[in-house]
User: Fold this.
Amino acid sequence: MLNNLMKGGLSITVVAALVIAVICFVPLVALWCINSLAELGGSSFYIDHNLYNYFVVFVAVFLVRGGSS
Assistant:
């Protein structure tokens, strides 16, 4: 019984770690897309990759994605 509980707890931990990894990965991909499109368009601006900018992009993605309709 304890062995089955530990396996269930481990799977919950793995799922939680994957969700956190995806949440951290979204701002990185968004900034990469913005910077790549700006470079392809000939623009001279570049958004730095730092923790504050990741937070701002995460909030922007959250707002753009919206909720259920």
Q: What stands out?
A: The chain has a mean pLDDT of 82. The chain has two helices and no strands.
